[in-house]
């Protein structure tokens, strides 16, 4: 069952003029969270914004004995709600409901794990990377952004033993172009069984899913639709999927996702 808490803001780390990481005190929630799950957050008790917003659990905070004490969220300032979270002061409180949704299933050796992140799609992969490390799984992160200043936490992933492959659309760091370019090259050259995990802009995830299918690799996608409640009541997060016969229908991402087998997704509905 999800937990609804008034979580104290422990710290607010500004990464740039747009991005920050908010650390929240929520021990019960942190103990229950699994890689790929999300929380619904409201930054104040007023009506602006009226609804909570979904955020992937970015990190699990632990005390000196290793006990979970809270979580962090990776935030990009876009509108009113994300702007308030960007400005949240330590000691203030936010309404936090979670953990919610279907989690990633981390694979183990000899299968490799390749995570493909675009922009804020990095958010669900820190907890997944830790779970893969604990299983001894060889893991690669393909991480793309528009420009070098928008690439964050590279060293933290490397400290977990993750091989990181960077790309930027302007060529300022790593490969020049979209993240799917180095991914495709690696898939052509791969010599072992690979499970792909991806999160980011929908067109990017669609392209990653097509590449994975073309190379006979299973692929899990973490979708990011707009959500109003996170509990399946408002039907704001419906996404198109296909059954075994190829017939399309809609499901609630907050209940059946946000993690889906990429082969289930009706990408033509999502992208267009």
How would you portray this structure in words?
By secondary structure, the chain is α/β, with parallel strands linked by helices. It folds into three domains: 3-100, Translation factors (Elongation Factor Tu (Ef-tu), domain 3, Beta Barrel); 109-222, Nucleotide-binding domain of ferredoxin-NADP reductase (FNR) module (Rossmann fold, 3-Layer(aba) Sandwich), CATH 3.40.50; 225-272, Dihydroorotate dehydrogenase B (pyrk subunit), domain 3 (Ribbon). It has helices at residues 27-32, 80-86, 125-134, 154-159, 180-189, 202-214, 253-256, 267-271; strands spanning 3-14, 19-25, 38-42, 53-56, 59-62, 68-76, 93-100, 112-118, 139-145, 163-168, 175-176, 194-199, 219-222, 238-242, 248-252, 259-261. The strands form three sheets. Strands 4-3-7-1-2-6-5 form a seven-stranded antiparallel beta sheet. Helix 5 (180-189) packs parallel to helix 6. The longest helix is centred in the last third of the chain and has 13 residues, at 202-214. It is globular. The two termini are 35 Å apart.
């Amino acid at each position: 069952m999800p937990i609804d808490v008034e979580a104290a803001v422990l710290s607010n780390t500004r990464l740039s003029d747009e991005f920050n990481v908010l650390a929240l005190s929520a021990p019960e929630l942190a103990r229950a969270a699994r890689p790929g799950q999300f929380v619904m957050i409201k930054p104040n008790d007023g009506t602006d914004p009226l609804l909570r917003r979904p955020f992937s659990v970015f990190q699990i905070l632990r005390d000196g004995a290793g006990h979970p004490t809270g979580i962090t969220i990776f935030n990009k300032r876009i509108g009113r709600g994300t702007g308030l979270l960007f400005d949240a002061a330590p000691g203030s409180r936010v309404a936090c409901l979670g953990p919610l949704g279907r989690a990633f299933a981390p694979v183990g050796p000899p299968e490799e794990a390749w995570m493909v992140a675009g922009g804020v799609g990095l958010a669900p992969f820190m907890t997944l990377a830790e779970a893969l490390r604990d299983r001894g799984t060889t893991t690669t992160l393909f991480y793309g952004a528009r420009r070098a200043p928008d690439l964050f936490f590279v060293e933290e992933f490397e400290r977990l033993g993750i091989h990181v492959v960077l790309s930027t659309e302007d060529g300022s760091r790593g490969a020049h172009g979209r993240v799917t370019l180095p991914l495709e090259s690696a898939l052509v050259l791969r010599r072992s069984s690979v499970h792909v995990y991806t999160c980011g802009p929908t067109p990017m995830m669609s392209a990653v899913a097509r590449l994975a299918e073309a190379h006979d690799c299973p692929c899990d996608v973490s979708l990011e639709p707009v959500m109003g409640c996170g509990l399946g009541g408002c039907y704001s997060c419906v996404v198109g999927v296909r059954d075994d016969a190829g017939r399309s229908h809609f499901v609630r991402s907050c209940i059946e996702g946000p993690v889906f087998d990429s082969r289930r997704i009706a990408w033509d509905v999502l992208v267009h």
